[in-house]
Amino acid sequence: MPQPSSARLHEFRIVSNDKIAQDIFSLVIEAPQLAKTIKPGQFMNFEVPGNAMSLLRIPLSFARADADAGTVEIWYAVVGDGTERLSRMKPGDTSTVLGPGGKGWGVPAECSRALLVGGGIGVPPLVPLAAELARAGIPFDVCLGAKTASELVGESELDALGAQTLSVATDDGTEGHCGFVTDLAAELLQQGGYDYVATCGPGVMMQKVAEAALAAGAYCEASLERMMSCGFGACSTCNVETTEGMKGACMCGPVFDASKVVVW
Amino acid sequence: MAVDFGGIKMKNPINTAAGTFGQGWQFEPFIDVSELGAITTKGCAAEPWPGNPAPRMCEIPGGMMNSVGLQNPGVRGFAEESGEYLADLTAKGTQVICQVAGHSTEEYVRALELFCELCPWAAGFEINVSCPNIAAGGAACGSTPEGAAEVMRACRKVTDKPLVVKMAPVRVAEIARALEAEGADGLSVINSISGMAIDVHTRRSRLSKPTGGMSGPLCHHIAVRMVWEVANAVKIPVNGVGGVMTGEDAAEFILAGATCVSVGMANFADPTASVRILHELEAWAESQGVSDINELRGAVIC
């Protein structure tokens, strides 16, 4: 039998669900088995009760997992009806989650220095990656981007994890460089010294980061987002066009070798 | 709970809708797939199809809309990847129905020939006549009685194994009669319903194609009516498909005249749905005081 998804069905209980930035929430759930097994870059698919007309789960990445406490922390943006309902859930509320799903970050064994580039609500999956790099003693720098300072997340957490340099860009200049995070990333990559780049954010941002990484000779991985139905390889709806054909983001991703991505 | 779906002997009436259940093994972490009466595998053509660009899915009230475009690895790739698992599943008593896709009558025949050669464990085949027909300018082969009959006639010559047809939700009674006349053993009613969803801010379709197939509870009562019409129009058995989320939804199809019932979109929201629905259907049959589910088929009072 081919290898099915690593996702399992878990019940969870909400520990906290607090606003941490403009339209962005931090959700901490108690799900011990999930907390033990989830790896950086993997995702979960949440059942969010409250609307009988809305049936599909909501796929979300995670920012932190604490195996000892049995908790997983998720940062999510309120972008539609499902995440709006999720933002109204209270500590003690319960539901189910499918996870951990998909293929996470694959830091090369020989990696000597990494660059992490996140935009908007693409920042969360970079946080557990930074923790993994810190544990492995691999130095890393971080570039974060947001439309405006009030929508920026992850700065203090990534700093605390030991980012050697952490630069910020906002579209409106309310914090850090006024412009795109891709400008900051391209500048660092031109200086050289990186052999691994990890990026998550809007497609056009990741594409530019991947191009700059390729030019700098660094291996680049990108975490992609697609409309997803099942999240465990049964529906063929979350396709990513790659140089090796159509690949499901839920099983072959969400983290892909950026040099193989054709359609961002 | 055993039923006979056109020669496909099922230990219970629960089947899965093609395209919503992968090739079965994707669900093994969540359920014992061999509890089900049958599974219908995702449609495969003679050669691999890449499917449509993203986005292929959008959520709509009461269901979802997709334009996957029948991405498949071709019958050979399918048999290599999943054949061993599906042969084992058959040995455990769950019938495997393989869905057949094609863009023309010749392509359906070629795919069916390959299935017969490479998948001897299959209990039967489901011809998906809703694929766009290239020669007919993209209209589905099965959208007219003549078109559906032509595909059925050609496929019937390939095999004596049970052949069922996944019907498009159009002109169902007359197309059902045409298919029965050409030797179909059973009918799966209905395929997804064509729909359209527009993002009014970008003014683009929410899918990469202008239209897609709607599925889920929003289809259920259209499907129940069509199953009832088909069951009254033909003698061959019907598989009810459309928005089954609970055992009572499945029961409705049986009362409308279906022999078996496929669980579709519910598999995505809850990977344990098919087995849960089976147990709920068993409880319902018991509540109706019958010892054989077949006594309830077509038992709607109207």
Compact description:
The complex is a heterodimer of chains A (264) and B (302). Chain A has 264 residues and is α/β, with parallel strands linked by helices. In chain A, 20% of the residues lie in helices and 33% in strands.
Give the tags:
heterodimer; A: about 260 residues; alpha/beta; Elongation Factor Tu (Ef-tu), domain 3; Rossmann fold; 2 domains; seven-stranded antiparallel sheet; seven-stranded mixed sheet; 16 strands; globular; B: about 300 residues; TIM Barrel; eight-stranded parallel sheet; four-stranded antiparallel sheet; about 30% helix
Any overview of this molecule?
The complex is a heterodimer of chains A (264) and B (302). Helix content of chain A is 20%, strand content 33%. Chain A has 264 residues and is of the alpha/beta class. Chain A folds into 2 domains: 8-101, Elongation Factor Tu (Ef-tu), domain 3, CATH 2.40.30; 114-222, Nucleotide-binding domain of ferredoxin-NADP reductase (FNR) module (Rossmann fold), CATH 3.40.50.80. In chain A, strands 4-3-7-1-2-6-5 form a 7-stranded antiparallel sheet. In chain A, strands 11-10-9-8-12-13-16 form a 7-stranded mixed sheet, with helices on both faces. A two-stranded antiparallel ribbon of chain A has the order 14-15. In chain A, strand 8, helix 3 (126-136) and strand 9 (140-146) form a beta-alpha-beta unit. In chain A, helix 5 packs parallel to helix 6. The longest helix of chain A has 13 residues, at 203-215. Chain B is an alpha/beta fold. Chain B has one domain: Aldolase class I (TIM Barrel, Alpha-Beta Barrel). Chain B contains 8 helices and 16 strands. In chain B, the strands form 4 sheets. Chain B has an 8-stranded parallel sheet. In chain B, strands 5-6-14-11 form a 4-stranded antiparallel sheet, with no helix packed on it. In chain B, strand 1 and strand 2 (8-10) form a beta hairpin. In chain B, helix 6 (247-256) packs across helix 8 (273-287). The A-B interface holds A 1-2, 4-5, 7-9, 47, 53-57, 98, 226-230, 232-241, 245-246, 263 and B 19-22, 25-30, 42, 50-51, 53-59, 61-64, 66, 68, 71, 81-82, 84-85, 88, 216-217, 245, 265, 267-272.
